[in-house]
Every structure is written in structure tokens, then in C-alpha cells.
Amino acid sequence: MTKNDPAETSVPSGTLAKLFNITDVRIQQLAKLGIVTKAARGRYELWQSIRGYVRYLQDRAAGKGMSGDGDESNYEVQRTRVYRNRADILESQSQAIRGELHDAACIAEVMGEGLANLRAKMLAIPTTAGPRVADESDPNKCAAMIETLIHEALMECSKYNGREVINRYLKRHEPAPEEETGEGWET
Prior knowledge:
Blueprint: E1 10-12, H1 13-20, H2 24-32, E2 38-40, E3 43-45, H3 46-61, H4 71-97, H5 104-134, H6 139-157, H7 162-172, H8 177-181
Antiparallel strand pairs: 1-3, 2-3
Helix pairs in contact: 1-2, 5-6, 5-7
């Protein structure tokens, strides 16, 4: 074959990307899968790549994936799995925001913190009450002072913060930045 033979023509990845109506990144992905043929750094064999891409599209349309080692069909399966997982995460976050879904670990943390605060306040009652009731001779007044401190401590327990549970859930289940963009999933 001669140097001007069209069968030996190589083109930059941008040209191939425009021809196939996909991104340069997708061209690189297709090269790794063996669908397009790399000639040199950033350059691809035009005719072999066109034939490979047409074959890939035909196989895909027929539901076969890529003929050969099956990497392409695995790619499609993984891509579908990622999108399904993303949809599940977004649905769970939506349910959590509406108060329809509760994460046991988040509830345990918030309740644990509330109970730890209650315990600390209850254990502080003797120290707090001692000086107040020391000079009081009326047992009813002493009991009322102690009861007031107990009620104050119990009020802490009644301040369950459901919003805090939701915020912790959302923080824990934030999608990774690469999942949010969806880059690199063109066909």
C-alpha cells in the first residue's frame, strides 16, 4: 500500500469524535475496549475505527454487546448498575427528607447523644440541688426544688430532633462527586 492509501489514514481523536458524534473521552474508552484502532498518541486509524464502531453499534442494536471477550456488554451492565444505584440513592434521600425513611444508625446516634446529655444532667442534680436545699428546712420546698431540676433534665430528652436525623442521613449517603456528573457515560 502506498503512503496516500486511504486504508492507512489516521486522524486525531477529535475528528473521530465529531464523526461519531461522541466525546474525545468516549473515543479513548472505545480504544481501550478495542472498538476503535489507535495509530499513535491521540491518533486513530480512520477506516478500521469506522468499521469497528459500526460493528459495535450493530452488535449493540442486536443486543449482543461486543463480540469477543464481552468487555463491552460488561460495560453496559456496569453502567446500568451505576444508574440504578444512583436512582435508589436519590429515592432514599427523597424518602428521608419527607420523613418516610429513617436510618437506624442515625437515629441511634441522635438518641444516644440525647440520652448522654440526659444522663449528665441527671447526675448533676445532686451537685446542683445540694447548695439550693442546704439552707431550706421545709421538706416540701426541698422536694419542689429537686423536682424542678429533674423536670429541666427531662425536658432535654423531649427535644428529639428529627431534622438532625435527616441531616445525618443525607450527609452519610451523599453520592460521590463522580457519580453526580455522570461524565464518561456517552454512547
